[in-house]
Write a structure and sequence with these properties.
Ku70, Chain: A, Domain 2; about 30% strand; alpha+beta; elongated
Length: about 260
């Protein structure tokens, strides 16, 4: 459980814990014959048997297609389908060699998917359990407004570690329960920084929700890294000037014969 250095509305701070809110009840899935189901990682192919390597080996895609019809050059009979354990993600270069020093970039896109900015990724330091506690910003959002404005990706439950922190968190939960709102929390001295739980991890906006039931409390930290914004409206074009229509009187008088 990660530690969180948190403040309240009276500017008191305490180090508490955050734990996952996953359901602990065991759920088992059974197969058609009643056997236990489980998930396994299975090896599909190796670098020596991917498309680019096979094309280079056979000379052209046409020759590779003929080889696929004649046999199975894309399958390694010895290791194909074996189970994988304790695997880790690695990065490789164009020559399929391991790369140890990489440079990552962040891509920012607009509401319509258009590229706005491409910048080097910044690896922010963790700040939830730092010497500077997370600030009580005082910015309250009604629950309906928050749920319609932000996308909440996960949540953590803030728990006490002793009797003193129980009273500390109970008071926070009671204040938020009576306000019927979520309260924005932030990192740094000004309280405007996003929450970073591990170095280089995804930064989040944090929203505290409190509920009480007699002497019991629950304090939830909702995490969001996406805000819902409507696409900008297109500027209204200039209205075309209306054509002037002049009404003409219809004359039904006929010339008399001989006039």
């Amino acid at each position: 459980m990660p530690g969180i250095n948190l403040t309240d509305s009276r500017n008191r701070d305490a180090v508490v814990k955050a734990e996952s809110t996953r359901v602990t009840e065991p759920v088992r899935y059974l197969g058609p014959k009643g056997g236990r189901c489980y998930t396994r990682r299975v090896l599909k192919a190796t670098v020596e048997h991917d498309y680019e390597t096979l094309v280079e080996k056979h000379g052209s895609p046409e020759k590779l297609g003929a080889a696929l019809v004649a046999g199975d050059p894309e399958v390694d009979i010895e290791i194909f389908g074996t189970s994988l354990w304790n695997v880790s993600r690695v990065y490789t270069g164009p020559d399929d060699e391991l790369v140890f020093r990489i440079e990552q970039f962040e891509v920012v896109r607009g509401p319509h998917g258009k590229l706005r900015e491409r910048r080097p990724r910044e690896r922010a330091e963790a700040n939830v359990d730092a010497d500077v506690p997370l600030k009580w910003t005082g910015t309250m959002l009604l629950k309906d407004e928050a749920y319609n404005r932000y996308v909440f990706t996960s949540k953590l439950q803030i728990v006490h570690v002793n009797g003193l922190t129980f009273d500390f968190l109970y008071d926070i939960a009671k204040e938020l329960h009576e306000a019927k709102a979520l309260m924005l929390v932030g990192g740094g001295k000004s309280g405007k920084q996003p929450l970073v739980f591990r170095r280089g991890s995804v930064p989040y906006r944090g929203f505290l929700e409190g509920r009480i039931d007699g002497e019991r409390y629950i304090l939830l930290l909702h995490l969001s890294n996406m805000e819902l914004k409507p696409p900008p409206e297109k500027p209204a074009g200039k209205a075309k000037p209306k054509k002037k229509v002049t009404a003409k009187k219809k004359t039904s008088a006929k010339k008399k014969a001989g006039s």
